[in-house]
Amino acid sequence: MSLSLDEVKRIANLARIEVGEEEASAALAQLSGIFDLIQQMQAVDTSAIKPVSHAQDLMQRLRPDIVTEVDQRELFQSIAPQVEAGLYLVPKVIE
Amino acid sequence: MLNSSLKQFSTLLAAKKISSAELTGEFLKRSQALNPGYNAFITINEETSLNQARAADMIIASGGARPLTGIPIAQKDIFCTKGWLTTCGSKMLSNFISPYDAAVVERFNAAGAVNIGKTNMDEFAMGSSNETSYYGPVRNPWDTTAVPGGSSGGSACAVAARMAPAATGTDTGGSIRQPAALCGISGIKPTYGLVSRYGMVAFASSLDQGGPMAKSAEDLALMLNVMAGFDTRDSTSLQREAEDYVRELEKPLAGLRIGLPKEYFVKEINDDVARAVEAAIAEYRKLGAKTVEVSLPNTKLSVPVYYVLAPAEASSNLSRFDGVRYGYRAPKYIDLDDMYRKSRAQAFGAEVKRRILIGTYVLSHGYYDAYYIQAQKLRRLIALDFAEAFKQCDIIMGPTSPTVAFDLGEKSSDPVQMYLSDAYTISVNLAGLPGMSIPVGFGDKNRPVGLHIVGNYFTEAQMLNVAHQYQRVTDWHMQMPAGSQE
Amino acid sequence: MQWEIVIGLEVHAQLSTRSKIFSGASTAFGAAPNAEACAVDLALPGVLPVLNHGAVDRAIKLGLSVGGKINSPSIFARKNYFYPDLPKGYQISQYELPVVEGGNVTIHVGETEKTVRLVRAHLEEDAGKSLHEDFHGMTGIDLNRAGTPLLEIVSEPDMRSSAEAVAYAKTLHSLVRWIDICDGNMQEGSFRCDANVSVRPQGSDRLGTRCEIKNLNSFRFLEKAIDYEARRQIALLEDGGAIHQQTRLYDPAKDETRAMRSKEDAQDYRYFPDPDLLPLEIPASWIAEVKSGLPELPQQMRIRLERDYGLSAYDAAALTADREIAEYFDAVADKLPSDPKLCANWVMGEISSYLNNEGKLFDNCPLSPAQLVQLLTRIKDGTISGKMGKEVLRQMWIQSGEQAGGWKRHDSEPVENLVDEIIKSQGLKQISDSGELEKLIADVIAANSKSVEEFKAGKEKAFNALVGQVMKAAKGKANPAQVNEILKKKLAK
Description:
The complex is a heterotrimer.
Chain A lengths: L4 H10 L6 H18 L23 E2 L9 H5 L5 E2 L2 E5 L4
Antiparallel strand pairs in A: 2-3
Chain B lengths: L5 H9 L5 H19 L2 E3 L2 H16 L10 E5 L26 H8 L3 E6 L33 H8 L5 E6 L5 H7 L2 E4 L19 E6 L2 H11 L29 E5 L9 H16 L3 E5 L7 H16 L18 H12 L2 H14 L4 H22 L5 E5 L15 H6 L2 H9 L3 E8 L5 E8 L4 H14 L13
Parallel strand pairs in B: 2-3, 2-4, 7-8, 7-9
Antiparallel strand pairs in B: 1-3, 4-6, 5-6, 5-10, 9-11, 10-11
Chain C lengths: L2 E12 L36 E2 H13 L3 E2 L6 E4 L9 E4 L6 E2 L2 E6 L2 E14 L3 E7 L2 E5 L6 E7 L6 H17 L12 E11 L9 E6 L2 H20 L7 E6 L4 E4 L12 E2 L10 H10 L4 H12 L3 H7 L3 H13 L4 H19 L10 H12 L5 H14 L18 H9 L7 H14 L1 H8 L3 H14 L6 H13 L1
Helix pairs in contact in C: 1-4, 2-3, 5-6, 5-7, 7-8, 7-9, 9-10, 10-11, 12-14, 12-15, 13-14, 14-15
């Protein structure tokens, strides 16, 4: 399978990782190698097999609708890059 | 004393031959002396550890000691530890003082164990050599030109070099077993769901599992007694009766059926590793075990399947690292998206970025069915292979890694070669089975070889028994690297 | 060309659980910023979601109420995108196998009844809020709302006008409050609509390209946004232009919609099953338990009120727009089955306006249905006039304190007859003794000979003047019907 440079840039954008031209080209070469490895999967006919998503066939456990958490804002915000008036600050969001 | 078992340490503490503060101080001193050479620890907090030790001494004095009370344990830096820097080996979390404790950390605290430091690891547990850590590579104490394996390389090194009596690790595709093998120690990855993932920084949620790393199976059993247990905060945690993993250690092995997958003993294994593994199996026959050939036909698919599923989950799990609520934020940016892109580009290392890109790609529109769904189907086939094999045997054995520890830098430029070295361990994670590695000798350049033991679901006690019986008649696990002698 | 407007709605109803959908943090509205954002809501490294039983329970309630299918298992998936109010970088939602599939909602627009089909209803977590007030040119993020449970209810594109869309939204709004799964507070954002609008030539069976208008938090905005958007699309097409699939925002100040900047790139959400959550199993026993706890639904009750009480479709619809009114009315009419119309008038009229004035809900009505029935009985048997009834009600309102826990808890208890006491003590009883009334009327006739003459000359208005004089003399306590009857009889002589 062949991955294109544009695809590398598209997925880097989706993943919000800045890549320069040179980096994208290097990534392309390495990712292509990895996808050649991954490509081995396609040789197997799996049409009759159900996909799994978890290691065990178990069902979701539910928690009772009870409030168990207390306000720890001060502690949590002590490690935040930028806060003001209890809010996390980010560059202006334009809707 | 450095080579004492956890049980022996506990006896010394109970008999007041030594205090926890003294024991902790000894290990701290040793760690501080050796760490510049090995780089096993990212964080050592002498005062915090000693305070914990003093508190443990009070518990011991009051007669409330439990098996690990007062014993120093190293924590892989993937476990959130309240008040401690918890980096996960990444620049992204290089300023993250965790505001809470992981379930595993809570359980060690409740057991009275002392946290002796946070161990180095591949960034976000992505790596097999510990070379992807933002904090620099860990050295293999048997040969400092060699890698210790990864991702729990810091923990493996710390135990091998006797900088800590035991340590925690996590294993997504072999990250406990492979470094244990490469550093000549013992390690077990339990059945998926046995150890709570709450507070363990997620790499690939459906594969990640915490477990202990120590010198011997007996020590692993004591560690697992603390680590395993149901946790309501983890939806994938298994609701089971608590088990005592020590209970079967002394059972004789007569009649044990060991399955040897024909796919494991192929040309890819180096001769030195094959020789040591075969010698170990011969030892098992002497102990009364029988061997049968079994087949795991889809073994070769496990690496491609893993490199779809693990990056897919990782790409999503690592989206939370956006520089908004904690962690690294780029110093300069022009707008919000630029802040995301720069923060993530600057704070994630090459391997992490590579896996995020793979994962983003395989989940993206138009590729999902061909990659992600196909991988999930093959995952079922891989699990079914093991189910078939376990109809003919009680336990499966093979090499943990096809080679002994490779040299630092040897594979770091070729990710595919690096990935392929995990072929044996990865399929166990895909199936959710328990797997362990124990030292069974030395190969080329006198580097350690590990025996991979895979059990059926929830047979950890039996696996520990199998490993312990071998360790009763051999002393590979007691050997210490030359540079670490007392 | 004649154009047809095609509308489908996605309604986000915040479920009225105490704690969040995947964490134990409180969902109470109005806390200090980020005071209700716990480790899980903040997506600290290593935290994990655990599903709230109460959220699933409410989703099942909605599913059963709209006749949908409850899926078991049902799967939670991650919807991946970056936004500062989305701490994990993905929203836990449902993609394949939502908790509810299918179902329908009956709406009424004027005299017309219509069925809107539902595609699905799925559980998901709400995002936080971005506060755009100026923090040195930056945006503030409050994550209190992050993780609040939402039920996203998705309709088929079955609506053909903004009026139908509003009727559908109102019916659903009334339903979620009726079955007590959402408080319906639109100002606080507990009930929000996204409208998918497209247009096509009348008679076409192909759907046009749609635009999605996000976050409409009032019925009025919903109506105006759809009207604007339909006009915009029609104008564009008539000019030979084409519609581009877009996400748009409605600006109430300008009464127009505009494309959202942040949604400009084609999104690729990379949905996949959340590996932190296992498949959700909803056993038949759970469904049966929810079913047995469901109240009579508005549509069923509406039919019953028309059938059993002979109410008009209009009255039945008005009474069942709100469960508290409906239940109150039902209790009143049940005690006075001979005149449901009188009951309906008083419940929707006087009682409703008293409660409105005091900002109270029907459940906390100080006057119990039994007390109202005492009053209505005295009006019906002619003891007091309707006008006097209002005065009695005023005094009863003052004297009755609110009953602890609402009237429902006390409905079976005996009540003292406050009505008769007030009538007696205030002398409000009607003059129903015909002898007394006849004397009074005779006096009025004698004193108003001019009016009598005019009446006899054929002037009907003069009769009304005479009735007025009688009522005045009786200080309002005469029964108007009786006065009419006696007066006519006497004048005919």
